[in-house]
Amino acid sequence: MLIDSFAPNPDEVEVHSIKIDASPENVHRALWTADLGGSLVIKLLMGLRTLPEFILHGGGKLPRDLRITLKTITSSGFGLLADEPEEIVLGVNGKFWRPTGNLAPFNRADFDRAVPAGSARGVWNFSLKPNGAGTILSTETRVTCGDPRSLKKFRTYWIFVRPFSGLIRLVMLRAVKRACTSPMGH
Q1: pTM, entire model
Q2: Domains of the chain as residue ranges with CATH
Q3: How far apart are CA 115 and CA 107, in angstroms?
Q4: Per-residue pLDDT tens for 95-110?
Q5: Residue 56 CA: distances (Å) to CA of 53, 75, 102, 168, 185
Q6: Measured by CB atoms within 10 angstroms of the end CB, which terminus of the chain is less buried, N or C?
Q7: What is the strand order of the sheet 134-145 is part of?
């Protein structure tokens, strides 16, 4: 898998999958266009995640009814590392354990180097595998920390965040499935 070239020895891994009654081509297309954040669960969890930044930097209006697609995800911190018919890979660097996420600006070249001390790297994929007349869509999140101190901070953060992160990914997979199996998705 392509994710192996960006995160070969992760410190943490989380995997989820779903069977979709659609071709890999249709699933790939739906990955880019489906509203991955359309559920109330995702809106609430993402709202909670952005609340510290909102409070610390003076407010403004929180966005409402924002469609969350892979395109919006790649324009808000995650960068596109690979987009192949069988796998899409995204990446992000930062100090995820801090209240504001402390994401570094995306730089593709950073993913060819070791993770710097004091930070972590997240690599997230969507893998598409033909399965009969359908597709198994999997998502895998891998996190690699730059040093033992960062790993300790990340693991403390991950104890609290992991269940919600996993829930977000499951809801996203279901959104792609709905997009593929709805009359508009064909």
Answers
A1: 0.86
A2: 3-181 (3.30.530)
A3: 13
A4: 988 876 678 889 999 9
A5: 5, 22, 12, 25, 40
A6: C
A7: 12-20, 134-145, 120-131, 87-94, 79-84
